[in-house]
Amino acid sequence: MASELFPLPLTPFEFYYWCDDRPDYPTTFPLELVFRGQLQREAMETAVRVCLDRHPLLAANLDATPGQFPRWVKAQVCPLPLDWAESRIPIDHAAGRTIDLTKDVGVRLWVRASAEQSRLVIQFHHACCDALGGLQFVADILVAYDSAVAGADPVAKLPALDPERLSMRGDYGLTEAGYRPNWRDTWMTADSWFRRLLSRPALVAAPREQPPPAPTAGADLGYIAHTLTEEERDRLQARASRSGAGVNDLLLAEFLVTLRDWNRKHSGDHRRLVVNVPVSLRSRSDQRLPATNVLGFWFLGRTPRKCDDAEGLVNGIRDEMEAVRKWRLPLYFMGGLGYACRFPRMIRWMLRSNRSFATAVLSNSGRALARLPLEHEHRKWISGGAVLERITGVPPIRPGTRVSVIVAKYAYDMYITLHWDALALAQPAAQELLAAYVQRLTRVT
Fold it and tell me: The domain at 183-367+395-442 falls in which architecture?
């Protein structure tokens, strides 16, 4: 079935992430799963093979023949992208930060297993899928692995998917909704991109007393995480309710204030703060879509002075994000990408000029792995006898956008995870910035 899909032209969003890929700033992202108990190699290998068959873009290569627009083709050779070793063997993550899609498939997996604890790290290329697509792949692996350990058909409990729908992945449901472009949409798209290209957002300040070390290869995943207690989560929810906003609005407001305070403290950039907010553009008809990108960006901007008015900041963000969701405003960014793809060199030039579009990234992925046909222990899924204790991950970063943060819930836990530009910020500075954000989120008001 999958072979009949190919060749499949890249969507503008996929082309954007492929063009922006570079060794120092790879457009890949990790998901890390920590289990209580030991994973079984044969069953995991079976699960990975099954899931690669279900998600064609994760088992494809890129045909980048000069003179034609890049397209996905079925990988001629697809060795199992799984590295297995005992827990004492470090993960050489440096070898997986960059993925050459013209030679390799867009996903890599590492397992480090012991009798007490096991780690599964999955690296995705963002041209292949977004975080929700990555979580979809993870969910399938957990279900297929559980069945394989039990000696059952690993596909039996997996939800049905429609690979044919991948041909519509860049349409965002517009054709099915009967959408017809009009002059207002054209003007809004042009205005949105004009603002982006003229914008010079502030940089996250790099403390002079903490210069970043020289980059080295190693096993570090390049992110740090903090887990909120149940009491802290409840307090955050109560604060959002009192302000008449949602938790996501409060997360964004406190992030902007944290960035403003950070730059003031470290004599940093005092220009407009811009946060890139990834927004899912999936519709109900995309429920059977395999892992892919159905994502847009919204650039939330505020001057440092605007961040001084706490109540006004939250209310303004609430109203803006309501409009973003109601009118699907990130589609204007996607429309501009679609137009620019008529001139591929324009996108390459724009991205290679290291033009920054945002100060930082903040993504709220919501509840991860909410519903699975598996047994659970205190809402933590049990797969093949191993209990999934924790799942974390982070979005990629690019030149000028020195910090990305993702907020996610799993079981009764909420994780605040930060990825930083190691060429601009030292790890102690990143830890200090994360601590400052957490302090604002957990403060008593």
Answer: 2-Layer Sandwich (3.30)
